[in-house]
Structures are given as structure tokens and as C-alpha cells.
Design brief:
302 residues; mainly beta; signal; EGF-like domain
Length: 302
């Protein structure tokens, strides 16, 4: 009788992978939203040190709602390097004054919205669309990157005629949308009107512009009279470091911990950390990514 022993080494993920998401002594959740390092709120009750990697990643928890600055955070994704957030809609309205006077323009909330102001954050080009809703208006999405300024946007005109405006269609009449170029950061959104809506003010006196997560906005003709949303969901990319992987390693400041790989950000600023194959967890956490080695022995008898 022969005995054949085959030794197979496997990497089984340990329970510790689920535990090393937040620094010791730091708030783990806000409401039902996990606060994952490099993001953090306040200081550790254990060490007294800050709970976030950089000031950029400081968040606050107010009555169970998570905020980054003034923007509400819905989720933090470590693997993709993204944050889901709620961002305000930019709008401008025209209201008719008493007879004999000129039209008065009044902002509905704000005709210009600052979406991101830190270079570590940029609007995800693959997960969002830029949209303008109105019959005679246009909107801009502006990016300020060092001394470089560039914009994208779209316009929609009806000239007082709503026959071609179709529910569910955002193809340029009543509603227009465009893709967002990659790497847009330090963002502002601006809404404008053509001729103070003088051809459409009887049914449409407001223009709205916003960035929204794909699949989260459906146009309705009723939105020409009143857009029911003040904020919309947006996907924001984030990166750490402000320099390349190589530069951060040379300076000894690289944030990627054990069993992880540094990858230069595709947004053109900083880098991201990813767990190596066979490991999982949080590559930014001091404990790094984790995995347990186990040996399975199969005895085959012949």
C-alpha cells in the first residue's frame, strides 16, 4: 500500500481583517455608517492622537449623520477609493416684479455650488453625470487645478415650446447631460439662464445644474416647474499623499501598510493602497491587510 501526502498551503482570511478598520480608541460608526481609516472623527480616547491620516480625511458625526466639511457622507469605500456623498444642486430663478419694473433674478438656493475644494478629492468621471434642467438655460462644471482652469457643461433650450420635452429623456430639450472629464478637482457648479427666461417664464423660471451618481436621476417635465431635490447623491474619488508612490517611499511617508501595494491614483494626484492577493482588510491601517496560513494535508491511499 502506498501513501501519497499532498501539502496545500492556503490563505484563509482571519477575523482580524474585519477589526482593523478604525484606529484604536476612535469612533467606529456614525449612525449605521462605518468610519474607515484613513478617515476618522476627532481624537482617540486611548492614545489622544488624531483618528484620521490627514486633515483632509477628518469627518464629524452630528446626530448620527456623517459629514466631511459641510458635505454629508453616505459611505466610505476603501477598496475603490471612493466616497458616496450628498451634494447640493445649483439653481437660479427669475421672479416677475410688479408691472413696469425690470425682472429680478433671485437665487433659489445658490447659483454656484462648491463641490470639492481639496486636491485629494475629485469627481468620479465613470460614476457620475453632469446635468442641467430647464427650458432656456445652461450650466458649467468648473475645475481649478493649480493655475489651470477648465470647464464642461451643457445647454438646453425650448424657446417657450414644451412639445418636444419628454418624461424620462435627458437628451437636450428640457434636460441635458454630459460625461465628466477625469481628474476634475477643486470643483464648482454654476447655473445660468438665457435672457432671464423671458420665453419660458410662464411655465419655467428656474435653472438647475448638478452632478449626480449614474442611475439616480430621472427627468420629469414637472421638474421644469419645480425640481423636488435640493441635494443629490454623488460619487467622489479620493487619494492620499499628494505625490506618487515612488516619491512617498523615497521620503518615508508612504501610507500603505503590511501586505499591501501602492498604486498611483488615476486622477493624477496622490496614490491609493490595495491589499495584496489573498489578503483583505484596511491597507491604510497600521495593522495592514491580514490573512491566516493554514495547511491542508490530503492523504490519498492507493
Amino acid at each position: 500500500m502506498k501513501v501519497l501526502v499532498t501539502i496545500i498551503t492556503l490563505l484563509a482570511v482571519g477575523a482580524a481583517a474585519k477589526e482593523n478598520q478604525t484606529l484604536d480608541g476612535c469612533q467606529m460608526e456614525c449612525g449605521d455608517i462605518p468610519i474607515l481609516f484613513p478617515f476618522g472623527a476627532g481624537k482617540s480616547t486611548t492614545t489622544g492622537k488624531k483618528c484620521f491620516l490627514e486633515e483632509t480625511f477628518r469627518v464629524t458625526c452630528v446626530n448620527g449623520t456623517l459629514y466631511s466639511g459641510k458635505i454629508q457622507v453616505l459611505s466610505i469605500n476603501i477598496v475603490e477609493g471612493q466616497v458616496d456623498a450628498m451634494v447640493s444642486v445649483a439653481g437660479v430663478c427669475v421672479f416677475s416684479p410688479p408691472p413696469g419694473s425690470q425682472y429680478i433674478i433671485k437665487n433659489s438656493d445658490a447659483d454656484s455650488i462648491v463641490l470639492t475644494s481639496d486636491y485629494s478629492f475629485s469627481v468620479s468621471s465613470k460614476d457620475n453625470k453632469f446635468i442641467t434642467v430647464c427650458c432656456d438655460s445652461y450650466g458649467y462644471l468648473n475645475s481649478f487645478d493649480d493655475d489651470t482652469v477648465y470647464s464642461t457643461g451643457c445647454l438646453t433650450r425650448c424657446y417657450g415650446n414644451t412639445e418636444k420635452v419628454v418624461d424620462g429623456s435627458c437628451s437636450g430639450i428640457g434636460c441635458c447631460q454630459v460625461d465628466i472629464p477625469p481628474g476634475m478637482r477643486n470643483i464648482s457648479i454654476k447655473a445660468f439662464s438665457f435672457e432671464n427666461f423671458n420665453r419660458s417664464s410662464w411655465f419655467n423660471n428656474c435653472s438647475y445644474s448638478f452632478v449626480v451618481k449614474n442611475g439616480n436621476y430621472t427627468f420629469s417635465k414637472s421638474h421644469l416647474e419645480n425640481l423636488p431635490y435640493k441635494v443629490v447623491p454623488v460619487v467622489i474619488d479620493w487619494s492620499v499623499g499628494g505625490e506618487t508612490c515612488e516619491a512617498s517611499r523615497n521620503r518615508g511617508t508612504n501610507a500603505c501598510k503590511g501586505n499591501s501595494t501602492c498604486v498611483n491614483s488615476d486622477t493624477g494626484y496622490g496614490y491609493r493602497c490595495k491589499c495584496d492577493e489573498g489578503f483583505q482588510g484596511n491597507p491604510y491601517h497600521p495593522d495592514g491587510c491580514t490573512g491566516n496560513s493554514s495547511i491542508i494535508m490530503k492523504l490519498l491511499y492507493a
